[in-house]
Amino acid sequence: MDIYHITQPTAPKVPIIISSPHSGTYFPPDIASRLKPEMAQRPDDADWFIDRLYDFAPQMGITLIKANYCRWVIDLNRDPESKPLYTDGRVITGLVPLTNFNGEPLYATGEPDDTEIAERVTQYYVPYHDKVNELLQQTKEEFGVALLFDAHSIRKVVPGIRQEPFPELILGDNDGASASAEIISAAWAALQSSGYEAEHNHPFKGGHITRYFGQPQNNIHALQLEMAKTNYMDTSETEYDDANASKIRGVLKGMFEQLIKTLQS
């Protein structure tokens, strides 16, 4: 199994790269055999079908990179030193998670030790981050600017993180540090006028990918969009729903149109 899959643009290329680090669901057999069977069969914390939701992007000239391995193998959106992203009491899953978002153990036996975690960093984490960096540098060289858009989803209610339901759309830019004001404004305006409940930098302000790669001073910008799975899945939040997804896909297309205009201006 490849570490990632890249879908190249089918229209004239624009300086946007969509990263989907959590939509993978594959486990290497050795890891799967040690997980609780119900966890391995249905890794609920995965960003199910996010790559499918955004599959229109190459037709807009956008490059898409998607991780193939489940975030429970290694979380590509965590600090490599496992420094916590938040300190407000929510459940924080680590670089190699041992529990799900609600604090339930993942492993039936053989939790990974420090040596295995280091091996997973080398085998899975580093190649993904190196490829994202390569794509960004190539894009910046070609256009003079690059935008990394990190695409995520989450169940509408996750008590381990907070008791109340999540907003439908959450734009994160590390409190304005990961992208220019013009780019942030273009994305936020599109989301505010979408008809969906939208929040900005709360309760998520971007994970490690957004915070690490976003360097607006070097013309490399990064945004994260977290969304409720109810935006594009069925009421059980387990299956993709084309009819439900069609509306949010229209919102996303409109947002990217505005971002492209901003980047080209």
Q: Main sheet: which strands, in order across?
A: 1-3-2-4-7-5-6
Report the CATH C-level class: Alpha Beta
Distance between the termini: 40 Å
- Compressed to H and E, one letter per element, the order equals EEHHHEHEEHEHEH
Using DSSP, what is the number of strands?
A: 7
- Count up the helices: 7
Helix-strand category: alpha/beta
Q: Please tell me the overall pLDDT.
A: 96
Named CATH architecture = 3-Layer(aba) Sandwich
- Into which percent range does the helicity of residues fall? 25-40%
Percent strand equals 5-15%
Number of domains: 1
**Outline, from the CA principal axes?**
globular
Characterize the largest beta sheet: strand count, sense, and whether it forms a barrel.
Answer: 7 strands, mixed
Here the CATH topology equals: Aminopeptidase
Q: What is the name of the CATH superfamily?
A: Zn-dependent exopeptidases
Gyration radius, to the nearest Å?
18 Å
Low-confidence stretches: none
Q: Work out the oligomeric state of the chains in this entry.
A: single chain
GO molecular function: hydrolase activity
Pfam family, one: FGase
Protein name: N-formylglutamate amidohydrolase
Keywords: Hydrolase
